[in-house]
Every structure is written in C-alpha cells, then in structure tokens.
Amino acid sequence: MLLWKRRWLTSTMITVFIAINVCFVFLQIHKQSRFVRLSYMYQRLEHERDDLLRERDDLVHKLHLQQGSKLIRNYASSELGMKQTVVHQVHKVDE
User: Fold this and answer.
1) Please, are residues 82 and 76 in contact by the beta-carbon 8 Å criterion?
2) Cβ(83)–Cβ(77) under 8 Å?
3) d(Cα 80, Cα 93) in Å, to the nearest integer?
4) pLDDT tens for residues 10-61?
5) Runs of H (alpha helix) within 67-83
6) How far is CA 13 from CA 10, 50, 86, in A?
7) For labeling, which of 1, 21, 52, 82 is most exposed (least CB within 10 Å)?
C-alpha cells in the first residue's frame, strides 16, 4: 500500500509539473502576441505623430508666408483699395 501511495504521489506531482509548464508556455505565447500587437500600435502611432508634425510645419510655413509684408501690402492695395500715405497727409489731432 505504501508503494501504491508513493507511485500515486509521484504521478500526481509529474502531472502537476507538466500542467504548470504547459500553462507557462501558453502564457509566454500570449505575452509575445501582446508585445507584437503593442509594437505595431506604437509604430502606427509614431507614424501618425510624424505625419501630424509634418503637417504642423507646413501650416506654420504657410502662416509665415501669409504674414509677409509684401502679401499684406498687395492684398490691401488690390482687394481693399488702400494706398500708401505720404508724410504730408498725416495730421496730428489734438483732443
């Protein structure tokens, strides 16, 4: 009977050991698949960030072009009908 208990205990321990190792293998596979999925997500977000930074730089460049004095002067003269003033046209108004 003691030999039977010892064999049962040994076979139970081996079964538990194998089951735990199988669980560890599945957990390792799960961890690796999550890592790959998160790596792809990180790469996609990094690419999107680069696109947005490039778009921001383009918009800042367009803003600086729009704020140029020649463009403003041309718009004021052609669209608004404004003309440059000369010094003798400027008068000081006293309150």
Assistant:
1) yes
2) yes
3) 25
4) 899 999 999 999 999 999 999 999 999 999 999 999 999 999 999 999 999 9
5) 69-78
6) 5, 55, 102
7) 1
Token pair of 85 as six digits:
């003033």
Residue 79 CB-density burial (10 A; 0-12 exposed, 13-18 middle, 19+ buried): exposed
Instruction: Report residue 82 CA to chain centroid gap.
Output: 46
Give CA–CA dist 92/33, Å, rounded.
Answer: 78
Q: Are 65 and 71 in contact (CB under 8 A)?
A: yes
Residue 9 one-letter amino acid: L
Please state the pTM of the whole predicted model: 0.55
Side-chain-facing half-sphere of 62: CA atoms under 13 Å: 6
Please give the Cα distance from 25 to 19 (Å, whole number). Answer: 10
Sorting pLDDT into bands at 50, 70 and 90, what band is 1?
low
Residues in the chain: 95
Token pair for 83 = 């003309």
